[in-house]
Design goal:
Blueprint: H1 2-30, H2 33-41, H3 48-58, H4 74-77, H5 80-85, H6 102-137, H7 142-156, H8 159-173, H9 189-219, H10 222-229, H11 234-245, H12 247-255, H13 266-272, H14 277-286, H15 290-318, H16 321-325
Helix pairs in contact: 1-15, 2-3, 6-7, 6-9, 7-9, 8-9, 10-11, 12-15, 13-14, 14-15
Length: 326
């Protein structure tokens, strides 16, 4: 088991290095520091002096990869690549273009993101699996057909419709919960109810259809027919055998999502005014704060790779043969 974990971790490092190199190329080679300065200061009235001052304040006036004007090891360390890219591996995100500490912002904003993402993930997973099992139990009947139609309708409607419609109906007309905003402590619950419910409802269509496909594939296998021949009821077959043997693909979609919950939901947080990492990223893009965008891209890559690692490890718990073949 230990050797399997080490091997998977070693597989992840080249991927992360490649992502980091690609991010550096996009931010500093394709989009040069001069371009960043022009976009931040404004193209019409920008001068070379103001651009140089802007770059100097943020450390963008150094050499990209190799500083020939420095001596010794500083030729490699006194560069943009070392300060802005390699430092990310030590989770030193530095400061935003407006002077804020990015690491502190992330620590503060991750909790509102988790507060909205965790309930959506847990409750949504339970609802989707339950609905899928119900459709499989009544497969080839009008209940199954009606469930599939409902799923397709939910999938066909944009998530913006649920957000705007929920805000108008529940927040404005019924005035049951605030339309937007956020509060500390238990007062945050009233601000989270509506976005959580909308997040769960908007995900039922795709999630339930996917789980239904997994369960239908398992139901048609020989071991299920053998279980029925032994006298097990359909409920026992579904919960003792089908659900258990469908755990690997379920884990594929569930475990890999866990680390990305820290990143929050871009659309939900923006529309509901929740100060999480999702709205933090959107605000940084709108403000052209390249330091924050780079940090969030790198953090998202790390979390996604960590999610893939968790998925591989969860396979070994469900099916021990995986660590022998991997």
């Amino acid at each position: 088991m230990f050797a399997y974990i080490v091997r998977r971790i070693l597989y992840a490092f080249p991927i992360l290095i490649g992502v980091n190199a690609l991010t550096f190329a996009l931010f500093f080679l394709v989009n040069t520091p001069d371009d960043m300065a022009r976009m931040h200061l404004g193209v019409k009235h920008v001068t070379q002096e103001s651009m140089d001052a802007w770059k100097h304040e943020r450390g963008y006036d150094k050499a990209l990869l190799w500083n020939t004007e420095s001596d010794g090891i500083e030729k490699a360390t006194d560069t943009i690549f070392f300060d802005k890219s390699l430092s990310l591996f030590a989770f030193k995100f530095g400061q935003a273009d407006d002077g804020r500490d990015i690491a502190q912002d992330i620590k503060t904003r991750m909790w509102p993101s988790l507060a909205i993402a965790l309930p959506i993930f847990i409750v949504g997973l339970l609802v989707n699996i339950t609905f899928a099992v119900l459709m499989v139990f009544f497969r080839a009947t009008y209940v199954d057909l009606g469930g599939v139609v409902i799923c397709v309708i939910i999938m066909s409607i944009s998530s913006l419709f649920y957000i705007i419609g929920g805000q108008f109906l529940v927040g404005k007309l019924m005035q049951l919960v605030p339309i937007s905003g956020y509060g500390g402590g238990f007062s945050a619950i009233k601000f989270l109810i509506l976005p959580v419910v909308i997040g769960i409802i908007s995900g039922i269509g795709a999630g339930s259809r996917w789980y239904r496909t997994l369960f239908l594939e398992e139901v048609s296998k020989d071991y299920v027919r053998t279980a029925r021949a032994k006298g097990l009821s359909e409920v026992q077959v579904l919960f003792r055998h089908v659900l258990k043997n469908a755990m690997i693909p379920i884990l594929t979609g569930a475990v890999v999502v866990l680390p990305t919950l820290f990143m929050g939901s871009l659309i939900l947080e923006s529309f509901f005014g929740i100060p999480g990492l999702g709205s933090y990223t959107i605000d940084a893009i709108q403000a052209q704060d390249f330091a924050i965008v780079r940090a969030m891209v790198f953090l998202g890559s790390v979390l996604y790779i960590f999610g893939l690692l968790l998925t591989d490890l969860s396979y070994t718990l469900v099916d021990p043969r995986v660590r022998l073949d991997g």
